[in-house]
Amino acid sequence: xxxxxxxxxxxxxxxxxxxxxxxxxxxxxxxxxxxxxxxxxxxxxxxxxxxxxxxxxxxxxxxxxxxxxxxxxxxxxxxxxxxxxxxxxxxxxxxxxxxxxxxxxxxxxxxxxxxxxxxxxxxxxxxxxxxxxxxxxxxxxxxxxxxxxxxxxxxxxxxxxxxxxxxxxxxxxxxxxxxxxxxxxxxxxxxxxxxxxxxxxxxxxxxxxxxxxxxxxxxxxxxxxxxxxxxxxxxxxxxxxxxxxxxxxxxxxxxxxxxxxxxxxxxxxxxxxxxxxxxxxxxxxxxxxxxxxxxxxxxxxxxxxxxxxxxxxxxxxxxxxxxxxxxxxxx
Length: 331
Prior knowledge:
It contains ten helices and seven strands. It is an alpha/beta fold. A five-stranded parallel sheet has the order 1-2-3-7-6, with helices on both faces. Helix 2 (55-63) packs parallel to helix 7 (221-236). The protein is globular and about 50 Å long.
């Protein structure tokens, strides 16, 4: 972003909110970089999927939600989870399988949930959160809570049957849900252009009689925020569901086990030049909203917080054998 960028809603955002969004992006980047290091050291059990490069697509969307709104997440859910302001100590403990984790060490990276913060849970099944999202949205409508649900998923989920089933149900029942396709171009190693015969995923909205919205640059934090502020208002006003797609890019492979050899170094490097955190930092400095020193301190404090989360997780106990039989049934 530069001084010439037109940002329709930025005047409504306080410096505090802008810096907080910057902090959340730093938390996502620093947390996932640290977890990536720990995976390589054998300190993290199970599979991990990183949100590095997708920070703006996550933070911009969730920052536009209203207090009390819910999200469902997906296997690449670290960014969404941190954007919902989870306790990083408990999140790190969960990823390390410790009893102090958000799910008592039973879920790990792909199943982090935080009901108190409105995160109904990540899901290791592609498209698995969609049914949960419309169920939660139906609850909000039946109970007239005034809350909405944001359903986050990757581009690889748009050919799942659950995508079409849930969009159809949400449409005919006029549910308060936003379907959000975070398009990072690849479903594991398969380019999205190889598996759809349209240009973009959001164009499928018309088949279900709901509005489809496109964010061409999902690495532009304020572009994401502005579009979501518009759609969140629309859904909160009782107009039914909407589908949003943003274009972004994951810097790492699909998961911690994927070297990403299906992509060229040139492609990855070109996307790194569009670093959403650096772009937003430059925007804040160039527009005299914050100084480089202020922003550097936010990043340093974020890194320190992540290091503290590692210490907390390392010192936490493993789950007891007896806990395997707990939390199985609702009481």
